[in-house]
């Protein structure tokens, strides 16, 4: 998967913004100001850090050890690095991204969730 496909998927989600807070080589996607994905723009193939339920993170790493690693420069309990070299189906990668987004949304405050619901 290329960065444009991944970016387009992320920014279509409700309440998502994109930023470059760590320099021009790391594109960060946030929902209501909280990060759910970080894409490394200077690596080939594309590598993306995604938030993940800790138990599921371990399972995914065991099942896809070539493509899903502990989160690079992240809390390895809660983040995975997904290497998008074409060995995993695009829909599976989107499902992992959706899982990350949903985890972050679940952790928003009630006020933030109400604000998110109002966004069209």
From TrEMBL:
Claim: DNA-binding is one of the keywords in the record: yes
GO MF entry, a single one: DNA binding
Alphabetical keyword list: DNA-binding
Top-level lineage group: Bacteria
SUPFAM superfamilies named in the record: YjbR-like (SSF142906)
UniProt name for this protein: MmcQ/YjbR family DNA-binding protein
Organism: Autumnicola tepida
Phylogenetic placement of the source organism: Bacteria, Pseudomonadati, Bacteroidota, Flavobacteriia, Flavobacteriales
